[in-house]
Design brief:
Largest sheet: 7 strands, mixed
CATH topology of the largest domain: Aspartate Aminotransferase, domain 2
Number of domains: 2
Mean pLDDT: 96
CATH superfamily of the largest domain: Type I PLP-dependent aspartate aminotransferase-like (Major domain)
Strand order of the largest sheet: 2-8-7-6-5-3-4
Helix content: 25-40%
Structural class: alpha/beta
Distance between the termini: 61 Å
Order of helices and strands: HEHHEHEHEEHEEHEEEHHHEEHEEEH
Radius of gyration: 21 Å
Shape: globular
Strand content: 5-15%
Number of strands: 15
CATH architecture of the largest domain: 3-Layer(aba) Sandwich
CATH class of the largest domain: Alpha Beta
């Protein structure tokens, strides 16, 4: 008889965002016609920029003509887009060869798929609070997960220590959910630690475009020694509004080797076995993001989200509530008032002022008593949510 993957039984009963969706669905069924101010899930509210739309239309027209039609794309990405992404890195002084860039259907897919490179005996370290999929993907794989706690004392940016006994090290900066960003000195400690242990860092850079300060690294490859210990996974979802369009990219340097095996070459083999590549139309649209006009347009959208974050931060400042994030990240991580748990605060906001956020407990034990707001809503809803928050808690 077939034996299923029994590790699925080790997963929590419901995924965080599914649970939120069920609660909001029940509320709307009980209160039909009510408008909810959704500051919870990190989905964008602005459409794709004009440069991308124009490129997508052009690509569709290409597919209508025999001489410009494209069928299967190269599994690791179209050469024109791999070159374009490498050029984006070069503007920050990071030299990549085009073939070190792999095009994917998004960071979430890649963060799960990349685990194929590692034996199940390799333990994974997750800095909590953490994006739930980091943990769940390793539970499904039957891999041991080490949880490294972070808190207000270390700014939710812990240093590595002997308790970080793992081979795969997840680092997300700017962080989801806390909005904290690793500075060069702290991130260098993790690079040195990984090289010393012969571990591999999985660096989630999905929110790098939100960094404002010049002294904060956008990429782990800005750090000395990172090419021998790190894989960087990025996405256009939040950078350019591709949440419904789906495209990301992964950087694996040629120098990254373990036990005499090249992880770069292994990933080429993996992709050519398991994928047929990302569609030509989407890759053509993605390339437009990196043009001068595309960059100008997406930064206009990012600034709207930054303004939303400022509105929420002003409200929390007025209320005297502790928070971090918001400055270089699209998320604000706040302490729940009145010693409420995250889920208690969720219910309080939903039922009293129809504002939806994300309970900190959904990101691990270190999130207990905290709450995450997303700045990806519309400016109108964000302003109203901030006003309602001040009226409720002021």
């Amino acid at each position: 008889m077939l034996t299923p993957n029994m590790h699925y039984s080790d997963l929590k009963n419901s995924y965080l965002f599914y649970n939120i969706a069920q609660k909001t669905k029940a509320y709307l069924e009980a209160h039909p016609g009510t408008h909810l101010y959704r500051m919870g899930i990190g989905d964008v509210s602005l459409p794709l920029c004009k440069a991308v739309i124009d490129a997508l239309h052009e690509a569709v027209e290409d597919q209508a003509k025999k001489e410009t039609f494209n069928g299967y794309m190269p599994e690791c990405g179209a050469p024109f887009l791999r070159k374009t992404v490498a050029g984006y890195y070069s503007k920050r002084g990071i030299a990549l060869s085009d073939d070190e860039v792999f095009i994917s259907s998004g960071a979430s897919d890649e963060l799960g798929d990349i685990l194929d490179l590692f034996d199940r005996s390799s333990a994974a370290l997750v800095i909590e609070p953490a994006y739930p999929a980091y943990v769940d993907a390793n539970v499904i794989a039957g891999r041991k997960t080490v949880h490294l706690a972070s808190d207000r004392k270390n700014g939710f940016l812990p240093d590595p220590d002997d308790s970080a006994d793992a081979d795969i090290l997840y680092i997300c900066s700017p962080n989801n959910p806390t909005g904290a960003v690793f500075g060069r000195e702290k991130l260098q400690k993790w690079v040195d630690f990984a090289n010393k242990r012969q571990a591999v860092i999985l660096f989630d850079a999905a929110y790098e475009a939100f960094i404002e300060q010049d002294d904060l690294p956008h990429s782990i490859f800005e750090l000395d020694g990172a090419r021998s210990c790190a894989i960087e996974i990025c996405s256009l979802s939040k950078t350019a509004g591709f949440t419904g369009t789906r495209l990301g990219y992964t950087v694996i340097p040629h120098e990254l080797k373990r036990h005499g095996m090249s992880l770069h070459d292994m990933w080429v083999r993996n992709r050519t076995t398991k994928t047929n590549g990302v569609s030509y139309i989407i890759q053509k649209g993605a390339a437009a993001v990196f043009t001068d006009e595309g960059q100008r347009q997406i930064r206009e959208n990012i600034q709207i989200y930054k303004n939303n974050a400022e509105v929420l931060m002003q409200a929390l400042d007025k209320l005297g509530i502790w928070y971090c994030g918001g400055k270089n990240a699209p998320y604000i991580w706040m302490k729940c008032p009145g010693n409420m748990s995250g889920w208690e605060f969720f219910d309080h906001l939903l039922n009293r002022i129809q504002v939806v956020g994300t309970p900190g407990e959904g990101f691990g034990a270190c999130g207990e008593g905290f709450f995450r707001f997303s700045s990806f809503g519309s400016p109108e809803d964000t302003k109203k949510a901030a006003e309602r928050l001040c009226a409720l808690l002021g």
